Amino acid sequence: MQKVFFISDHHFGHKNIIDFESRPFKEVDEMTTEMIAKWNSVVGENDKVFHLGDFSFLNKEKTKAIVDKLNGYKILILGNHDRGRSRSWWLDVGFNEVSEYPIIYNNFFFLSHEPMYMNKHMPFVNVHGHIHGQKYEGKNYFNVCVEHWDYTPLTFEQIRDSVVVSEEQ
After folding, report:
1. Which domain of life is it from (predicted)?
2. Phi and psi based region of residue 80 (left: phi greater than 0; alpha: psi -120 to 50; beta: remaining)
3. Terminal C-alpha separation, the chain
4. CB neighbours of 147 closer than 8 A, spacing ≥ 6?
């Protein structure tokens, strides 16, 4: 059975993100190796992954080498650091689908790179990245930045169940 995963803000090749976000890596190659291993530890070949932006700071060849190592059918929602490159660039490096805009998933989850304005009456949960170690308060937001989840993609069920639990509290 196919699983669906969500993750954001790997920043592959971005040396300074290690210090900016206090990532537990000595250098960028170690970060890359560990993040690929974490992805593949949960994502199977037939699974689907929504990457919510800021994937790589590397050139086309190096980015393609990383994407080729990652399991699953990969969908990229462009983040602020991805937008300097065209949709076709991202498709060429191996993403199966690329969206320049947010996506509504399963009629309930609003997938975007940056947190979107959500008031308490909106029937959606905004699954997002961009803000790294920070968190928005409220049941309408769910941050899937790698820093919050040990650099490991989360399943749809993990997010859904977390949202249901927070609504009950």
Report:
1. Bacteria
2. alpha
3. 31
4. 9, 21, 23, 132, 133
In order of 25, 93, 129, the CA distances from 79 in angstroms are 23, 16, 9
| φ/ψ (deg, to 5) at 143 | -90, 120
| 91-117 per-position pLDDT tens digit | 999 999 999 999 999 888 899 999 888
Neighbours of 82 (CB within 10 A): 22
Instruction: Supply the pLDDT for residue 160.
Output: 86
pLDDT of 42: 98
Quick one: which of 120, 86, 94, 101 has its CA closest to 52? 101
Taking a C-beta distance cutoff of 8 angstroms, is the pair 2, 46 a contact?
Answer: yes
123: number of Cβ within 10 Å = 9
Strand partners, 105: 109
Q: Which residue has the higher pLDDT, 99 or 166?
A: 99
CA 148 and chain centroid, separation: 11
Domains of the chain, start order: 4-168 (3.60.21.10)
Torsion sign (Cα): 59, 89, 75, 110: positive
**Closest of 110, 90, 92, 93 to residue 102, by C-alpha:** 110
